[in-house]
Each structure stands twice: as C-alpha cells, then as structure tokens.
Amino acid sequence: MATAIRREETSGTVLLTLATGQFLMTLDISVMNVSIAQVASDLGTTVTGIQTAITLYTLVMATLMILGGKIGSLLGRRRAFALGCIIYGSGSLTTALAPNLTLLILGWSGLEGIGAALIMPAIVALVAGNFTPAERPKAYGLIAAAGAMAIAAGPLIGGFVTTYASWRYVFAGEVVIVLGILVLARRVRDVAPSQRPRLDLFGALISAGGLGATVYGLLRTSEWGWIQPRTADIGILGLSPSAWLIAIGLVLVWFFFLWERHIEQRGREPLLSPSLLTNRQLAGGLTVFLFQFLLQAGVFFLVPLFLSVVLELSALDTGVRLIPLSVTLLAAAVGVPRVLPRTSPRLIVRAGLLLLMAGIVVLMSGIDLDADAAVVAIPMVLLGTGIGALASQLGSVTVSAVPDERSAEVGGVQNTATNLGASIGTAVAGSVLIAVLTAAFIQGIQQNPQVPDEIKTKASVTLAAGVPFVSTSDLQAAMAEADVSSAISEAVLASNAQARIAGLKTALGVLAMFAVAALFVTGSIPSRPVGTEAPSSAKGP
Question: Which residue segment(s) compose the domain that 246 sits in?
C-alpha cells in the first residue's frame, strides 16, 4: 500500500513537472500577441519589430525540434530537459531585462527557442519512460492540455499583467517557474543512453534549413502572398517570396530524407531514421497531430480577432471569453482516458475532430453584424472538448508505435509536425481572412453610391494588396484625422464591418473543410486502446 502511494505521489510530481514545462513553452506567443503595442513602446521599436521576434521564436523552435530530439537520445532525456530549462530560463531573464529589440530577439526568439527545442521532445520521451502504456493516454492528455490551455490562457494572463503591471513580469515569473521545474525534475526517472553515436551534423543542417525555409515562408504568406506577390516590388521572377521559400524548404526536406537513408545504409546513426515514417500508426498519428494544430492555431487566430477587433473587447475580457475552452479542454483530456479507458482511440479521435468541426461551424453561423461576445460560448465548449479528446489519445498513439528507446526521436518529429500544422493554420486563416476582407471591402465601396468615383478608383488601386483588419474605432479615428466627410465615412465603416464578418466566416469555413479532410486520415489510428495490442503489431521498425 505504501509503495503504491509513493508511486502515485511520484507520478503526480512527474506529471506536474512535465505539464508545467509544456505550458511554459507555448505560453509566450499568446501572451506577447496581446502585449505587442506596449512592448514596442517600451523598447522604442515598432509593432513590426515585435512581430518579427514572434516569428523568429516559432522559426527557431521548428527548425531545431528534430535535432533537439536526437540530442535527448544522446545526452539522456532528463539531462536534455534540464539543459533546455536552463537555456530557456536564461532567455526569459534576458527578455525580462531587455532594453531594446536586439536583446529581446536574443533572449526570447533565440535562447527560449533553443530551450524549447530541447524541452518539448524530451517531455514526450520522459512520459514514455515514467508511465506504463496504460497510464500514458491520461499523461499525454494532461500535458497536451497544458500546452493548449497556455494558448487559450495567454491573452488573459498577458492582458492582466500588462494592464496592471508590466509585460516584463510574465518573463520574470517564467524564470521562477523554471527554477521550480529544475528542482522537481530530480524526481523524474530516465534511462541513461546505452550508446553515444556521432551526431549527423550535415543532416541537422539540412533539416534546419528545410524546415526553417518552409515555416518562414508559411508565416509570411499573409504579407507576401502564397503564389502571386501582394505587391510588384517583392516578387521574384513573378512569384511570391513565400512560394520560393516553401519550394526550397520542401526540396531540402526531401534531400534530408535521401541523406538520412544514405547514412542508415552505411551503418551509421541517422539524425532521423526514414524507416520511422513507414510505420503506418506513427505516420497516421503525426498527420492527425498536424491537422489538430492547424485547426487549433487557425481558431486561436480568428476568435481573438473577432473579440478584440470586431467587438473591441480588452485583452483581459478577450481572455475571459476563452475560459470555457480551457476548462472543457482540461476536463476532456483528463476525463476521457479515465472514463473511457477501453474505448477505441480511433473512435475518440474521430469524435474529437467532429466536435472541432461542429464548434467551428456553430461559430461561423453565429458571427454576424449584430453578434455579441456570448456567441462564442457554445463553440468554445465544443472546441475545448474536441481538442481535449484528441490530446488524450494522439501522444500515446505516436509513441506506442515505436520502441521506447526511440521516443525522443518521435518527440522531435511530433513537435515538428505540430509546429508545421500551427504555421499552416495561422497562414491559411490569415491569408483567407485578408483576401476575402479585401475583396468584400472594395466591392462594398464600389457598390455604394455615397462614395465618389474618384475615391472608388483610388481604393481599388491602393487597397488591392490587402485591407488591414482594423476596428471600427481605429478606422473612424483615421478617417476623422484625414478629414473625410461624414457620408463617405459612414459608407466606409459599413463596408468594413460587413467585410470583416465575411472574412471571418470564410476563414472559419475553410478550417471546417480541413476538419473534414482530417477525418479521412484517421484509418491508421489503432482501433484498440494503447497498451492492449500485441507488441509485434504496435512497435514497428
């Protein structure tokens, strides 16, 4: 009895340690998004400068995830986790004290990004090493929920701290939390690496270049365009820089796999074994992971825009409206494995995707010119439950597909897939939103008899590259400063209001179609609960 109690206490400590680490890794972006203007003012820079730092943070994480997973295999997962925490904490301290944009980028984008690339793959591997196959769905569910909750809670935390103190306290608080994690990490069990093969540095360079180019291209699509350049001056041979970057990135990723296969055939240790991705269960789990984060990132991009720009709620009020999502997400992530331990993972994953789709559709149908903040309540419950259901299964599905000693590699690939998914989701949602907003706004101006022909012509030319998603108050203030007549001002405001709704509804509709597409790849998710299948059928290469 005493042994069982001690094991339960240890498991709880391990889970708390790893979940807290996951929460921190995903908190920064959502916190910073609501504090951009204040951060820019404090550092004497522009909003564009802070957005660049946000982009670089995502970029560093995405490019180094596979390498971070491999380093965990070489050093030991707990050592990699602790080293990542030290680097991340140093970055948080540098960010908290940063007097300018340069040091902010060094601390946040650089050091924190490197730390996250070590920590996140290690978390996946440490769960595999500290929990039995039967316990893993609940553990992975809680950890994934912690990450998703950080995205949802970020606006609330960032809004509150920025409003009543300073954004710097968020990063200072992270330093304290990291110190606590390092103390608790001593309770985390790890298996020391049995061998220390040479690191494939050339493969690491290729993978970083390929993933970096792809992710950066995706993140810039809203500014540069997908294929056609937004403006003539940024085009390269008639194509958008994003198109070139994504193409170059995909070619480098393809070459990376060719190189890794070559390394493996010569009997050397590859950075990532290509044979891993021939495992049907692993490939299916990674694909659904990508879709989950695509949908999740798209929704978390659009909903705050609706609340903060269309309805003009404060950052704090916006965060409060997202609380139902956090609550239901945690409940589903923890509750599903507990209540339905013998239920088919494939069934739960499909139910989660259907709930995600339902939440998006209900939100899309509820958003109109007369909608208020209450319209997001039911969608948040549906979305939170769906994300929590997916979180409760996918981590254990991917890790159980391979032997435990390869869990760190899987962690690196898994986090690469989630970063790619999040980048695609944000890029797709943002580009569709701006494209439809621009078309609808220009059309509204053209069809309004109150607007003179001269202004119609000027608007068609100057706004063709994209109409900014701005609030009614900001647009009204801009037109008052430009001394626009009241009749024209009212016409422009009405067109802008209708165009914003059209953009949001269309972007949500595209995300709903991605949810439908995700259902078609769930056939490779196992139908039997993880831990009940024969080892030969689950472990693959």
Answer: 200-270
In a domain, 73, yes or no: yes
Q: Please, are residues 519 and 390 in contact by the beta-carbon 8 Å criterion? A: no
User: pLDDT tens digits, residue range 304-341?
Assistant: 888 888 888 877 788 788 888 888 988 888 888 888 88
DSSP string, 385-414: HHHHHHHHHHHHHHHTTS-GGGHHHHHHHH
Q: How far apart are CA 135 and CA 7, in angstroms?
A: 13
162 & 209 share domain:
no
The three-point CA angle 260-261-266 to 5° equals 95
184/211 same-domain check: no
Number of folded domains in the chain? 3
pLDDT at 539: 45
Please indicate, yes or no, whether residues 126 and 172 belong to a single structural domain of this protein. yes
Q: Of 380, 359, 415, give the one whose Cα is nearest residue 140.
A: 415
pLDDT of residue 47: 67
In terms of pTM, does the model score above 0.70?
yes
Who's near 339: CB < 8 A, 6+ residues apart?
none
d(CA 86, CA 80): 10
99-141 pLDDT, tens digit each: 998 899 999 889 999 999 999 888 888 888 888 877 887 888 7
Summarised one tens digit per residue, pLDDT across range 481-538 is: 767 677 777 777 888 888 889 999 999 999 999 999 999 999 888 888 766 544 444 4
Both 113 and 241 in one domain: the answer is: no
Boundary (domain end) residue, out of 270, 295, 319: 270
155 shares a domain with 59: yes
Q: Which of 164, 469, 500 is nearest to 314 (CA)?
A: 164
Our CA dihedral for 120, 426, 62, 345, rounded to 10 degrees, sits at 50
- Within 8 A by CB and 6+ apart from 247, the residues are none
Kindly state the tokens that stand for 109: 């984008």
Three-state SS annotation for 329-366: HHHHHHHHHHHCCCCCHHHHHHHHHHHHHHHHHHHHHH
74 and 135: one domain? Answer: yes
Tell me: do 77 and 210 sit in the same domain. Answer: no
CB-based contact 226:243 (threshold 8 Å): yes
**Mean pLDDT across the chain:** 82
Any domain includes 409: no
Cα distance between residue 440 and residue 444, in whole Å: 6
- CB 453: neighbour CB atoms within 10 A? 8
340 CB contacts (<8 Å, ≥6 apart)? 348
Q: Rounded distance, CA 520 to CA 431, Å?
A: 25
Q: Decide if 121 contacts 408 (C-beta within 8 A).
A: yes
> 114 with 217, same domain?
no
